[in-house]
Amino acid sequence: MTAMETVTAIEQLKDITIDRTVWDKAVKARSDAGRERLVKFYLPSFKKYSTSEIDNKCANSSFPAISLTGKKCKLMCDHCQGKLLLSMKPATTPGALIETAKAAFNGGAEGILISGGSDEENRICFEPFLSAIARIKSTTRLTVAVHTGLIDRKTSNGLADAGVDTAMIDIIGADETIRSVYHLDKTVDDFEESLMSLCETSMKVAPHIVAGLHYGKFLGERTAMKMVARHNTASLVLVVCVPYHAKDRTMFSTPGSREVGSFMAECRQAMPDRELILGCARPGGAGGSEIDAYALAAGFDCIAFPADGIVSA
């Protein structure tokens, strides 16, 4: 029995359809990279998750997300509309950030993610909070991650000097997507400049690529992949656009699993030694299970919220 047949024979995965060409492309990419099929599964604590194989029983406690802007976002991108901020803990002053972090630490948290809504230039105002972040790092054992928007070298260095461990940033590879989805008068070069500024610090950098960000279509993903490959990042996180919060869901389609799977294989080909992570956001149902299976085939290192049956695969 082949590896593909083994996967599709699993009871929970019996209804998925695996494309042989995409599967073989993914397996070859993993083999050429010399990667064993060893994968970590993780369950971020911002939501409860349970399958027949795996579950997390501590929602919103081990690594809570904190918004420096509360529920406010001035950019209001078409795919999000600021709704992702609603699940985050608000901390709009340095004092509130310190207290929120201390409460998380005393409650057993391992770390915190600090982000917030963007201004009209897709920037998050971290500067007033740098001293607070430094105090959090000096008075707790919390791991601190930030998810930035566009960022300059001064702010990148400030975050690193404050002790931030990991920096994340969404990388967009098409000017048309930046203008249309983000309503932003910036270019692909601006995103690469931000990535470069983060990579020049001591922080681990984990850029994200949102597959299908251009209203469900692939447009700049491969350019974004090449941008990430050019820089010394710790990892690449791939998520799939699922516009639950879009202003108008009819504007978006859902990327097909074959297209996503093929792109994952190309990511492994382009970055044979890089940690590749399949992140939280992606479709559910059979399509989501197929994406997870392709991630296994391509030698992805981590899968968040694995579909039922994937752990056994």
TrEMBL record:
The keyword Kinase does not apply. The keyword Iron-sulfur applies. InterPro entries: Aldolase_TIM, rSAM, rSAM_sf. Residues 70-205 form the Radical SAM core domain. Keywords: Iron, Iron-sulfur, Metal-binding, S-adenosyl-L-methionine. Coiled coil: none annotated. This is Radical SAM core domain-containing protein.
